[in-house]
Design a protein that fits this description.
This protein has about 130 residues and is mainly α. The protein has 5 helices and 3 strands; from the N terminus they run ααβαβαβα. Helix 3 runs parallel beside helix 4.
Length: about 130
């Protein structure tokens, strides 16, 4: 198993693919978004599809995000394991295995699941 890189690891020593971030630029961008939303009296819930990283989600929440948006149950599980509790799952949940996983997710988080038909809500409500 490859060890995880830590901040300051020389680029030549990184196993690829690797997410490399300019921390000061990232923090500036997070603060700009927080200020933009705050100035307009709006809440924000960033979509985690770009970074899929609980640590970045934590920084976004610390800056004022009310939670995160994920596309899939597996992404929501990663965010919950990383400490995020307010999670919107934006895509439909189809099939009993995923419904059970959402029900299990309710043990550690408060997921919100988007549905576009009553029939999609029934299995979730029954779980």
């Amino acid at each position: 198993m490859t060890a995880l890189a830590t901040p300051g690891t020389p680029q030549a020593d990184l196993d690829t693919p690797a997410l490399c971030i300019e921390l000061d630029v990232m923090e500036s961008n997070i603060q700009r978004m927080a200020s933009f939303m705050d100035e307009r009296g709006k809440q924000w819930r960033p979509h985690e599809k770009c970074h899929k990283t609980p640590e970045i989600a934590r920084r976004q929440r610390e800056a004022g995000a009310i939670g995160v948006t994920c596309a899939k149950v597996s992404e929501a599980e990663v965010m919950a394991a990383g400490g995020t509790t307010d999670i919107l799952i934006a895509n439909m949940i189809v099939g009993d295995p995923k419904v059970r996983r959402v029900a299990q997710l309710c043990q550690t988080a408060d997921p919100i699941v988007a549905v576009d038909h009553f029939a999609q809500a029934q299995p979730l409500a029954a779980a």
